[in-house]
Amino acid sequence: MTRRLTILAVAALAAGTAAAQEIDADGDGLLSLREAQIAIPGLTEEVFLLADTDGNGLLSQAELLSANERGLLPG
Ligand SMILES: [Ca+2]
Ligand SMILES: [Ca+2]
């Protein structure tokens, strides 16, 4: 998948759009590893754990945006 798609996924989450609801399958506002891997193909568990800065096993919008800014996300 392309970098563009990853950025779109992050942007959709940040904006709380309909696309974000599709990414966040259970609607809790956070991305599990499984949800994140659907939104961001190529995302490894290792990168997910790096992005999960508070270590709760879920990515918030802020954590996802931060990971994207740090260049952690694949694509
Ligand atoms: Ca979720
Ligand atoms: Ca987290």
Automatic annotation (TrEMBL):
<dbReference type="InterPro" id="IPR002048">
    <property type="entry name" value="EF_hand_dom"/>
</dbReference>
<feature type="signal peptide">
    <location>
        <begin position="1"/>
        <end position="20"/>
    </location>
</feature>
<protein>
    <submittedName>
        <fullName>EF hand</fullName>
    </submittedName>
</protein>
<feature type="domain" description="EF-hand">
    <location>
        <begin position="45"/>
        <end position="74"/>
    </location>
</feature>
<dbReference type="GO" id="GO:0005509">
    <property type="term" value="F:calcium ion binding"/>
</dbReference>
<dbReference type="InterPro" id="IPR018247">
    <property type="entry name" value="EF_Hand_1_Ca_BS"/>
</dbReference>
<keyword id="KW-0732">Signal</keyword>
<dbReference type="Pfam" id="PF13202">
    <property type="entry name" value="EF-hand_5"/>
</dbReference>
<dbReference type="InterPro" id="IPR011992">
    <property type="entry name" value="EF-hand-dom_pair"/>
</dbReference>
